[in-house]
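REVIEWER CHECKLIST
Item 1: Sequence provided? yes
Item 2: Single chain? yes
Item 3: Sequence as submitted:
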Amino acid sequence: MAIAAGVIAIDQVSKSIVVAVMVEGVAVPIWGNVLIFEFVRNPGAAFSFASGATWIFSLLAAGVTVVIVWLARRLKSVGWAVAFGLLLGGTLGNLSDRLFREPGFGIGEVIDFINLPWLMPAIFNVADIGITFSVIVLILLVLTGRNFDGTRGPRQKKSPQATP
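Item 4: Structure as written out by the authors:
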């Protein structure tokens, strides 16, 4: 929960600063062509995909949040907790934009501002970074055989003990 709270806090503070001090659509080079801040409002998903269906992403984010909170009670693995904390923080960061930003409840536009033109043709935010890193951690956990309960290796079903 601490990781999720940290991602949400950094995401929302950074978005508030961007909205307060930047002009929408104006690119501000921070480090040459490596890092550019450019304030945009994203009404859809990644790459502004499905911009007319923002309410669907709000429902999906709410569903992801419920699943993560439900699963969190069963976790005994630090790695899985980190992954789900990053995912929860990122999901709630963008969901709060969809719920509370213009043009209205459930259809608000997500504030994006980080542009790495050398890496990808997308502008994103801190919540998106949390989500991306959660996916990387989840992939590593699966590839290394880490289970929710902190054990390693494939889960084995308990077989009934034979009685003599």
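Item 5: Key structural point noted by reviewer: The two ends are 48 Å apart (CA to CA).
Item 6: Recommendation: ____
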